[in-house]
Amino acid sequence: MPKHSKRYRALSGKVKDDPIALADAVTLVKSFATLKFDETVEIHLRLGIDPKQADQLIRGTIVLPHGIGRTQRVVVFAKGDKAEEARAAGADEVGAEELAQKIKDGWTEFDACVATPDMMGVVGPLGRVLGPRGLMPSPKAGSVTMDVGKVVGEYKAGKVEFRNDNSGNVHAVVGRASFEPEKLVENIQAFIDHILGMKPNAVKGTYLRGVSICTTMSPGVPVAA
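Above: the chain sequence. Below: its structure as tokens.
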């Protein structure tokens, strides 16, 4: 078990075991953000899915109502007109084989990776590098597409990509501690509603088993969802 700091233990003492209303949870989490940088606010959902079953996996994207408070760095694998389209939309780096080699050599200073379908032969071998970081382009996530301009624009606007982990949990960034409480509430509720709308037909019993929010350096606060 990791050893938590004195500050973290003190904050944990303010968290009750029982879930509280979302607005109250946001107020509490914002009060925890006392460090010298603008902490990220995260959401963690415990789902009643079996992650070993392909028909119960949860993966997708969402553009939150108020973004996530930072500009995401986006790279695009494309050629010709699609490469120009990506650059015009604000992609931070656009390329093909040379970009693949740069990533193979260890460069991963980006937050999202988009590719046109014809480039997946180039991108595929990068799975060992991009996969563990959650950066591998995927048709299901909408990051393998011919509409690269639109998708780059969405990521720049704060598009969030998510997928369940091996325990059936989903984690995502939903804003910054400096956000107004109302904006955080709207972002978080939009994310919860989106996940609820993705409930697989194969899931039996309780689907959403728990929700908590926290900042980068704070304990989680259970939310009544």
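The CA atoms of residues 95 and 190 lie 34 Å apart.
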